[in-house]
Input
Amino acid sequence: MTTINFVEILVYLAIIVALTPLMGGYMKRVFSGERTFLDPVLRPIERAIYRACGVNASQDQGWVDWTVTMLIVNAASLVILYAMQRLQQWLPFNPNKFGPVSPDSSWNTAVSFTTNTNWQGYSGESTMSHLTQMAGLALHNFLSAATGIAIAVAVIRGVAREKAKGIGNFWFDCTRSILWVLLPISLVAALFLVSRGVVQNFRADVVVKTVEGVEQKIAQGPVASQEAIKELGTNGGGFFNANSAHPYENPTPGTNFLEMILIFAVGAGLTNTLGRMTGSVRHGWAVFGAMALMFLAGVFVCEWAEQKGNPIHQKLGVAAAPTDGGTGGNMEGKEVRFGIGDSALFATITTDASCGAINSWHDSFTPIGGLVPMANIATGEVIVGGVGAGLYGMFLFIVLAVFIAGLMVGRTPEYLGKKIEAHEVKLAMLSVLILTLCILGFSAAAAVLPAGLSSLNNRGPHGLSEILYAYISGAGNNGSAFAGLNANTPFWNTTLGFDMFFGRFFMLIPILGIAGSLAAKKKVPESAGTFPVTGPIFSFLLVSVIVIVGALTFFPAFSLGPIVEQLLMKAGTLF
Amino acid sequence: MAPPKRTSLFDRAIVRAAVGDAFRKLDPRLQAKNPVMFVVLVGAVLVSVLLVRDVARGKDVLFNVQIALWLWFTLLFANFAEAMAEGRGKAQAAALRRGRTETMARLQTRKGEEMVPATTLRKGDCVVVEAGQVIPGDGTVVEGIASVDESAITGESAPVIRESGGDCSAVTGGTRVLSDRIVVEITSNPGETFLDRMIALVEGASRQKTPNEIALSILLAGLTIVFLIATVTLRPFALYARGVATTPVLIALLVCLIPTTIGGLLSAIGIAGMDRVLQHNVLAMSGRAVEAAGDVNVLLLDKTGTITLGNRQATDFFPAPGVLAASDLAEAAQLSSLADETPEGRSIVILAKEKFGLRGRHVEGMHFIPFSATTRMSGVDWNGRRIRKGAGEAVIEWVRGLGGRVDPAVTDLLNRISAEGATPLLVSDDAKILGVIALRDVVKPGMRDRFDRLRAMGIKTIMITGDNPLTAAAIAREAGVDDFLAQATPEQKLALIRKEQEGGNLVAMTGDGTNDAPALAQADVGVAMNTGTQAAREAGNMVDLDSNPTKLIEVVEIGKQLLMTRGSLTTFSIANDVAKYFAILPARFAATYPALTALNVMRLGNPRSAILSAVIFNALIIIALIPLALRGVRYRPLGAARILARNLWIYGVGGVIVPFVGIKLIDWIVLALHLA
Output
């Protein structure tokens, strides 16, 4: 690892640490209905939206009511996006005259964007009309992110409230997420991106003659507006197939750094919102600490592996050995304007956060370098995680950690005064089971069925890594891919669609159930006998539970994929 | 307090019985209650069936035979643990049952008395019991007074007094009347007596899973399914890699990964917890109550008998102004108390002797005036002296009546002593006030220390007393309790419990009188004294057979220890899996990907020995942990943060390391014996 990379990581983390209480405090005010500086502008809009939708946003909803509302809104938006893709040839803003998207790809993409996964089996600039991109996809970038934040806030309320029937109001939480959090920040970020050279227009492809004399089509479109929310809402679905590696999406190291900040901003801030709303700011920091610990471990391993590069390539003289201040190591699949440092850091961040935007091909990473993104996603996307999704996923592990270790202090386990009993454990295990079943079940099927195998560019352990990555990415609602896989086939589109759907909605129903049941409980007052959920011990415990539960579940499969691949590479075999 | 009865953990008779039970418990219907062990059972059966097939086909079965054997051992060891835990209770129940069967009862009928077997008695029947006879059933004494030997239940040989009316009227079936004659009204139907319930409880027959146990079972079942998915999908993944995954090896892997350690010991831990409470001579009506005791964060303790020795004692003499020699006061106090047989009176005589060397003297010619509620004084007339001691106002009035003068400083002195929480007794000799004796409640030694320990665990102690607030505050300060309820009535006590529960606290209390019953029922943990009334015993969820209220603290500690043991072994069990992966996975796929042997960090001899060693370790660890499960993890009164850190180190980090060492050792032995 070079010094400059090391410094960049520390600077990045320092900025996130500084940003966390600011974002956390702001979101606490927003979702508690307290005054913020944006109120004069946004309150009237908020009221207008409620009136237009004919909803009562001040009514407290029980968890079932809340969840059903959320599901209906998401289902409706899913259907709309599906229809938009199938009908785009008759709809306006289609300068390239693209035909309808295939049924399986439409299903996959509709689910993908609704679930904040933004897995893209298609190539955006050559498939989707501007209307589909802007109104269809970008809308979901906001809605799915807002849904995630709303769920996290509802979960936080469940923990914070006492003897309460409800966990808030979905309309209130969702609308405020969009108006107060996502829109203003993306607006500012998009303007900055435009200033750095990101395009924002409605033109058809520009055809140019290159220096070599060949014709090249250069795709155009409303990129900047999508780019900002793509990162801020941890959506990750790029305007271009090349995603953040494309110079129109991410032209400079400066925009790259901003995009990385945007990815963590909301997720990290929510840990602080959790702390503030439950009255234990230190607990918020303990959760953040656990995330930071796993982030650092991942980024250091990934950068080390990439910088060290591929010994076989180096022996052949294809790639240079790394030097301090110079590039070197595994540059395959990476943009020269980012180099190894920014690529490995971006890869770690985007997989930690369930974002899925990429600025390099994870598929071309060294096996251990590629294991980091995969392992990050396999944790269930809780290292900062997707907006909201990271926090409610972490909540699941907190419940499990508190239950397993809580007994050890000689009391019925309690989390911030709420007893964790059979009901909560049952729901938490249900969520874990759904994730495990989705990932391993679909992967196992794809690993033996011809329809699954025919999409593989690589056989051997690397092919298995591609399969595992795809389903882990789908169930974790990440959306990044090991690009070697041709996933735009009916089999992959359909199975991944279900993978993403189950991984999001089936997982979060039990979680909201836990929130509802915790909200109804009374609080046991804190005393010296209370299980501590603050401080380094708790962070350490949380990390251990995440790593052990994750490792124990996926280690067998990983050992046949990336792990054996790394060992074989050492022995001189490549895939 | 009676020391807990100790039977050796591995008593021979119990072990012998447990070995038999271990086989009997293989019954699938019993195993189905425990999902983790049920999966092991299915695995063992499957491997055994495949084994038979392989034998029929003439294959080399040495390896599979061993896998099958150790899977069955895993089951047997878990069953053995449970049988061991039940063993002690069963032995006790057998002894109790012997005493009960032959009892005959003298039933009172309209025609007179009739001899009937005790087992036919119904609620409302009245029976006569005389010296030497066994009380045929639970009941209330309605006539007479008798000393009763309750050692059959309590193990305590000193007889207790039972009489009609008041708070000492309850008798228990199976106990023996030592003197006199009583008439007992039976209060329970056959099969529902205290003894019946006790037998059922110690045998574990009526054992139901406690709330935390249920939650933990769900977690374990969930983990089992997760590992089932991880193992089953390994087959397609192996197929993809063009490798083979034989069923016995996959089952071995599965059994190693699912939490068999805690799964196998879970019920043993619960039963042993109940048993530990019983060793302290407390009978818990349910495991739920023991578990709740661990959660308790407010203890209501009666002052008298729990915090203080029970009776006030003279601690100081304060001469009145103008009385030069304190010994004059002491002498007068002693004289007035010579005939006073109350504990207070005796303590005055003792104090006089200790402080001034005043010995007892002949009481001839002394005319003692006993204490009465109207005069509120007692005293002695001797040699023309009229010595009186009693409540301040009463003695002042008496002195004034004799024409004496009362110095205002005396009143100040009385008030000062009251303010300190002591009871002042004014002493006068004719018309002269000599001074004041201070009577104080004496806090039992070591109580402050215990309350400090409770506080460290996050438990608040509240003292309940009928005293006035001033006195109560002083004693509360001295004993080191967190709070007190003065001039407490049963209603206030109940209200206090409700208030604490409303605030989210779990409350434990002890009680004995009938008027305690509502509070006992309301409390989350209500420990009734065995000497108490039947109503109190019915209302509580534990009965202290020694009737020692201080024991509530031990019960709380046992409850905590029970939960800690479960949590620690769960953590240990899950942490163990890391090493098992490193043993089995490289071995499992070594043929497909030889490069995977790099993961064989323990350098185990060969794939078969690696898998076998992991399975053997998995079985033996259950046996190794039985003593811990039965005794419980070491309990220390520390704050939760320190306990957590400590147990995480021991059972979490230790749980990761121990199997690496254990599996390596077993591998050596397996290789040395050429078993694989």
